[in-house]
Amino acid sequence: MQAADAQAAGQDVDQYLHDITADALSNDIDPPWAVSGDWQASRSLLHIRMPLEGWWVQIDHPDTLNALNDALAADLRTLGVGLLTSSIATSENRPATTLIAQHVRELTLEDGSLPLGISFRSKTEYGRCLAWWNRREDDDLLPADEGPSFDGRSDNVFTPAFQKICSDWGLPILQVRSAW
Question: Which residues span the domain enclosing 169?
């Protein structure tokens, strides 16, 4: 697409990209196809202390998907989901993923414990993601030593892993312009 746009503007691709980037920055906006600095800042990594004991529900495991299909089939059908797959369980279909998360949150596991959260494969195949419930905060209780808690540290998303992904996908990385 960038090559076609450059050709339509009568420029080679490198010059076109340079000009578009310069124009955007001179107008104080992020250039197209770049990873916004503000986006990076709003997604800083917070360091969370997790319980030493407990279980994560692997949402993309066949046994989990089968159990969720059995338990939620009627509700999923009302959302237009015929068969729950890992693709749906980790999708942008917020009604479906919220239904699944609420159901899993309310489960009591075989050992009598409550699940800490869910684990699922990253859509970009760069590791696994964790989504956890802060049950004490959800229930308007003070934090407890045994539960998850923020340890006061955070890192900007600009990490070696982030740099690798941007490099793999050919995405320029911009500086953060706003304070938060």
Answer: 36-44+157-180
Residue 99 has phi, psi (to 5 degrees) of -55, -45
Q: Residue 9 domain-assigned?
A: yes
pLDDT category at 178 given cuts 50, 70, 90 is very low
**Are 15 and 40 in a shared domain?**
no
User: How do residues 71-126 score in pLDDT, each as one tens digit?
Assistant: 999 999 999 999 999 999 988 899 999 999 999 999 999 999 889 889 998 887 77
Look-up: residue for tokens 């009591």?
Answer: 108
Q: What is the reported pTM? A: 0.59
Give Rg (Cα) of the chain: 22
By the 8 A CB rule, do 17 and 2 touch? yes
Pairing state of beta strands 56-58 and 117-121? parallel
Report yes or no on 161 lying in a domain.
yes
In the chain, the number of structural domains is 2
d(CA 12, CA 17): 9
- Please indicate, yes or no, whether residues 21 and 40 belong to a single structural domain of this protein: no
